[in-house]
């Protein structure tokens, strides 16, 4: 993680202002959704692109792929889960 040297106050409602130069660099637009992650004493914010989130896991990664003429978005983990379930379903259907 890279230090920015920026320090911000939290207001009485718990809000933090992200500096405009940081928003420009990270391409964060007004009304953009941000995902919040917490690990130990660290809070991380990440742009949330709902249209790019995996249908099964909810993950947004650069490796997500679109299937079914753009109707289904899957992460590698989601695709693997789906593949396992489909194989099991086909196996069950074959034994009937």
UniProtKB/TrEMBL annotation:
Cited SUPFAM superfamilies: AbrB/MazE/MraZ-like
Highest rank taxon of the organism: Bacteria
Keywords attached to this entry: DNA-binding
Segments forming domain SpoVT-AbrB: 5-50
Gene3D superfamilies referenced in this protein's UniProt entry, alphabetically: 2.10.260.10
Keyword NAD annotated: no
GO MF annotations in UniProt: DNA binding
Name of the protein in its database record: Transition state regulator Abh
Source organism of this protein record: Bacillus pumilus (strain SAFR-032)
């Amino acid at each position: 993680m890279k230090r920015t040297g920026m320090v911000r106050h939290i207001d009485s409602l718990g809000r933090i202002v992200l500096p405009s130069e940081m928003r420009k660099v990270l391409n964060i637009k007004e009304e953009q959704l941000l995902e919040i992650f917490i690990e130990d004493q660290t809070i991380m914010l990440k742009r949330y692109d709902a249209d790019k989130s995996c249908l099964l896991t909810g993950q947004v990664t650069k490796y997500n792929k679109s299937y079914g003429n753009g109707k289904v978005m899957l992460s590698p983990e989601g695709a693997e889960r789906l593949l396992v379930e489909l194989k099991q379903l086909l196996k069950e259907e074959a034994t009937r």
